[in-house]
Amino acid sequence: MSSEFWLISAPGDKENLQALERMNTVTSKSNLSHNTKFAIPDFKVGTLDSLVGLSDELGKLDSFAESLIKKMAQCVVEVMEDAKGRVHENLLANGVDLTSFVTRFEWDMAKYPAKQPLVAVVDTLAKQLAQIETDLKARTAAYNTLKGNLENLEKKSTGNLFTRTLADIVNKEDFVLDSEYLITLLVIVPKPNYSQWQKRYESLSDMVVPRSTKLIAEDNEGGLFTVTMFRRVINDFKAKAKENKFIVREFFYDEKEIKTEREEMTKLLSEKKQQYGPLLRWLKVNFSEAFIAWIHLKALRVFVESVLRYGLPVNFQAVLLQPHKKATKRLREVLNSVFKHLDEVAAASILDASVDIPGLQLNNQDYFPYVYFHIDLSLLD
After folding, report:
1. Which pLDDT does position 365 carry in this prediction?
2. Threshold 0.70, pTM exceeds
């Protein structure tokens, strides 16, 4: 089965109920789709004018809700960076997988009372989704800032010897400290030049302390050596070292600074851990809420469009089809042939896309003789 659904409706009179039965028989026999009835409550209709306005608003809200739940699904992927295989366990609606929720959909009367005017129901859904989006922005911004700071620190500790932080490499014992005259420098020496360094470092300048060099770290390109000398020859030593392809790394041992850098990393890691649980829980709960709201919006759209299309009194039947993979073209043909009597012009124009349907702003590909809405559950593609 595919992860897409087609939500359609046809008038509820005898002729069209028979057409629906025919559609069920054909799609089942030819293995085109799995079909279930989609229950929609009896809403207060209001005026046709208000329905036209609502139709437009519901279209925008539907797109907004879909993009919001896709964003939230993506956030779950990013937050669960170390356990991506378990993302789908966290993308549920009312505790069940999304397909089960859609195929067993029931209108939530407690949350969205159907006795209210339609405008009020739509307003409740719009406010709920807007609030989730506002909270999502605030929560993910805080988490992403923290993650960014951590990544920057991690980059600093994984670069080469020229750029990486030395806080986790050097020790106090490697340096001559608190001396008025002496200082320990760090020099990066390419691997092929190690023996050359050992032979030459003492004579690169006057006043270099004999046998004061020690290899304290290595990467693929070279090694980090200490060397101790009198402060007054620093500049001369740097210049001579450079001529010999030995690079003095600007670094002075400062215990406070090193301690601060180490603590910062620990603090950020601990903050990220503390935020991870609550953020993931919030995403799970609110993804579910937003998804449920989205499917309620689809139900409202079917109701409004069916009344506008088929007229009053309200009498239509909604059906949810889950097309089999690679059967969508054939399924569309079956639906068009079963329901073409509902709108001969639309049915003809589907066969001939060059025909314009008077009074319709819809793209021909989106317009069918029956009411049709698409639900795609592949939220991570």
Report:
1. 55
2. yes
